[in-house]
Amino acid sequence: MTASLPIELNHIKARGVVRITWDDGHVGEYAEAYLRGHCPCALCQGHGAQRRFIEVPDAKLTGIASVGNYAVELHWQDGHSTGIYTFDYLRSLCPCSSCQAK
Questions:
Q1: Which segments within 24-94 are labelled E, that is strand?
Q2: Which of 26, 69, 79, 93 lies 20 to 30 Å from 101 when distance is taken between CA atoms?
């Protein structure tokens, strides 16, 4: 079960960020390059349990699609779109200082 659900997800193209407002009131802003680098797909992450950041130059988000009631699929300018970002995963990636301190 998801601990927190997004109630609003906005791609702010001019700033190159995705802003997510969570149902507990928390707001996280995720840079496009940060999200692309943390793509959870097997092509980017392999099949091991260890998550790693993959540097992708000039990452540009071109679309966001809902996946059921548990995730989003991000579409990138480089044609990549196989990563399914669960809400739990997105919350764990929140780059704000309070989340990173946990």
A1: 27-31, 61-67, 71-76, 84-86
A2: 69
Residue 88 lies inside a defined structural domain of this protein:
yes
Sign of CA dihedral 2, 29, 50, 98: negative
- Residue-number span of the structural domain to which 18 is assigned: 6-100
- Please name the residue that has the structure tokens 């797909």: 41
Please give the distance of CA 53 from its chain centroid, rounded to a whole number: 12
Look up the pTM and report it. 0.91
Residue 1 is assigned to a structural domain of this protein: no
* 85 to 6, 32, 65: CA distances (angstroms): 12, 13, 10
